[in-house]
Amino acid sequence: PTFTLENLARLAAKPGVQSTLILSASDGSIIKSTGLLASPASPTSPESSLVGNELEKGSNSNNNEGYEGDEDHSKSADHVARVVFQFVAAARDFAEGMEKGDDARLLRMRTRKQEIVIVPGV
User: Fold this and answer.
1) Rounded distance, CA 106 to CA 73, Å?
2) pTM of the model
3) Alpha helix stretches (DSSP H) within the chain
4) So what's the pLDDT on residue 88?
5) Which of 22, 121, 114 is CA-nearest to residue 61?
6) If DSSP codes are grouped into helix, strand and coil, which group holds residue 90?
7) Mean per-residue pLDDT for 114-119?
8) What are the phi and psi torsion angles at 106 (to 5°)?
9) Alpha-carbon gap, residue 79 to 11, rounded angstroms
10) E-assigned strand segments in the chain
11) Which residues pair with 109 in a beta bridge?
């Protein structure tokens, strides 16, 4: 919907936002991406925060600690989409387990080097 794209554009214009991703709720595939994560191997910068349909995420480091395999994981939109989709699925399972019929509405995670904000089901 138009209001979703308008909100996404507004959030993407905020200082420090590096990229936005809109993911399919059914399979986590990327519907739309902008910013640093829009290209397969983009450089990173010191600030982070990324927004998307189901997510807001950024990366500000080439440190791939905790990732297995390829060193470019922190730069790949496809990798971010996969990890976010898994995170959202786990959060939804958790919410449902806490109270039947409940669902995750906003997920925010901060690490030492990244901030990820996810808005499932928008």
Assistant:
1) 24
2) 0.66
3) 2-12, 77-98
4) 94
5) 114
6) helix
7) 87
8) -150, 130
9) 22
10) 19-23, 30-35, 56-57, 107-110, 115-118
11) 116
